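Structure in, sequence out. Go:
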């Protein structure tokens, strides 16, 4: 492996951003940030603790209670969000460069994520202006309408896979609806998050509306979840961490939106367009280095085409281009961190005892160091196998045959997760019936993961709590207040009135 790339003008250190200023941790503590290609430390980031979270929440609370942002007209906030989108679009190459370097994502895929981040802001900038609130009339008797009001300080906790885009996914609606925010980005990938401050300042976001505290989940993240002045927590990450957040936020009765893990099935029926299905399944598990919650990491194939599918999939998997993240021809780069690399490789070894290895199975040739895992596939995997049941979050897939529609549905639903599902068939009735019966928050029929931003995003079972996206995000980040107006004579039952002339009112 040669030509390890380092972007120009990397920051000397990564700081918090609180109340419009870049600051160090109050105790001066830092943590190391690693280059996933070499696993060498390339920068130190401020390690936030409870005191830093307290300072950030105080700034955000002050901006909410005293500042102009929550009281601006939707059109005024929309203009700021559109400027944010314009700036992100104009800097997409730089954003992608830093994201790719920090996370190990292939540069072409990181570029797509940067552009999606701009679109997220643009979408919510338009949505808050076009939004219509409900009104209900009872002719001649009553008028009822709904006010939407920002709630306060939103705590946003984001993951290390496609971090900049997923930060925008939460920042866009939280800010659009008039809230102020404290963002706690993933400690593995803090680099691109540090760019938000400059973007927001240039766009004209008022001071204190956006605050960022870096740090470990058990320190900064935990303090944010437990802070009494943070009524909302939006979290994306693994299911176990979601359970901890759920428990820690319960005493405060916080609003929660949690998009958690996945072990999504891709079900391929014999009547599917096999070429398209194979291409989609390969992309669906190996894109973004396999580090995606909606990855189709369990492929369930009808037995009539099973052998051909497995052969084609193995051929394609072996051709996937593993390379340096900055190389535009790279299709799979380096996993984000050595801890995660060890986890994924442990599942690869488990898989060798649970299925038939048809591709990958270790380090790719030419990459003796760094967090590289060859695109790996196991066939003939039993439904009770760990690699079938447990989220690996890497370029590893389990393939299993089925004989009947009923068996396919049983296999698809046979995990604790329920985030996404992909169904490949040309039978229209089967497609709709199967989609309705599969336990998943999102289903794609004869399609890869292409989502309309107006639709809800979220899962069932262990894959999440609540939904965001489109109006569901507006619902989460606002209080809905019902106002009732009597138009006719008031309907007041007359309690407590008695005949004062009656000596015995019994």
């Amino acid at each position: 492996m040669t030509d390890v790339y380092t972007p120009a003008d990397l920051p000397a250190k990564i700081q918090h951003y609180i109340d419009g200023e870049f600051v160090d941790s109050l105790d001066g503590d830092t943590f190391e940030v690693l280059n996933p290609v070499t696993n060498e430390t390339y920068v130190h980031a401020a390690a936030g603790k409870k005191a830093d979270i307290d300072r950030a929440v105080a700034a955000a609370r002050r901006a909410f209670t005293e500042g102009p942002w929550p009281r601006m007209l939707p059109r005024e906030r929309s203009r700021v969000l559109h400027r944010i989108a314009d700036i992100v679009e104009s800097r997409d190459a730089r954003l992608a460069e830093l994201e790719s370097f920090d996370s190990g994502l292939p540069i072409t895929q990181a570029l797509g994520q940067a552009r999606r981040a701009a679109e997220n802001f643009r979408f919510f900038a338009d949505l808050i202006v076009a939004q219509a609130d409900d009104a209900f009339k009872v002719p001649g008797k009553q008028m009822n309408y709904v006010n939407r009001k920002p709630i306060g300080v939103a705590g946003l906790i984001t993951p290390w896979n496609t971090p900049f885009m997923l930060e925008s996914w939460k920042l866009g609606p939280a800010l659009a609806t008039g809230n102020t925010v404290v963002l706690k980005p993933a400690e593995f990938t803090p680099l691109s998050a540090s760019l938000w401050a400059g973007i927001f300042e240039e766009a004209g976001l008022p001071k204190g509306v956006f605050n960022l505290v870096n740090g470990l989940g058990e320190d900064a993240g935990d303090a944010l979840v437990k802070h009494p002045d943070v009524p909302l927590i939006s979290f994306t990450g693994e299911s176990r961490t979601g359970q901890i957040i759920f428990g820690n936020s319960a005493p405060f009765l916080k609003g929660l939106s949690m998009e958690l893990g996945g072990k999504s099935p891709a079900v391929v029926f014999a009547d599917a367009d096999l070429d398209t299905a194979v291409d989609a399944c390969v992309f669906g598990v190996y894109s973004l280095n396999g580090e995606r919650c909606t990855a189709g990491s369990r492929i369930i194939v009808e037995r009539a085409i099973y052998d051909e599918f497995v052969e084609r999939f193995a051929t394609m998997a072996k051709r996937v281009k593993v390379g340096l993240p900055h190389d535009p021809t790279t299709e799979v780069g380096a996993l984000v961190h050595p801890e995660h690399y060890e986890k994924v490789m442990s599942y690869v070894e488990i898989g060798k005892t649970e299925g038939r290895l048809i591709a990958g199975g270790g380090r790719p040739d030419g990459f003796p160091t760094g967090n590289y895992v060859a695109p790996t596939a196991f066939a003939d995997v039993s439904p009770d196998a760990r690699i079938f049941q447990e989220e690996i979050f890497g370029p590893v897939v389990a393939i299993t045959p089925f004989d009947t529609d009923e068996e396919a549905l049983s296999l698809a639903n046979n995990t604790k997760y329920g985030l996404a599902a992909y169904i490949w068939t040309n039978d229209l009735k089967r497609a709709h019936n199967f989609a309705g019966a599969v336990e998943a928050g999102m289903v794609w029929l004869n399609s890869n993961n292409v989502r309309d931003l107006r639709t809800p995003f979220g899962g069932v079972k262990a894959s999440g709590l609540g939904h965001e996206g489109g109006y569901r995000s507006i619902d989460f980040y606002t209080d809905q207040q019902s106002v009732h107006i009597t138009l006719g004579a008031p309907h007041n039952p007359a309690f407590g009135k008695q005949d004062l002339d009656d000596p015995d009112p019994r």
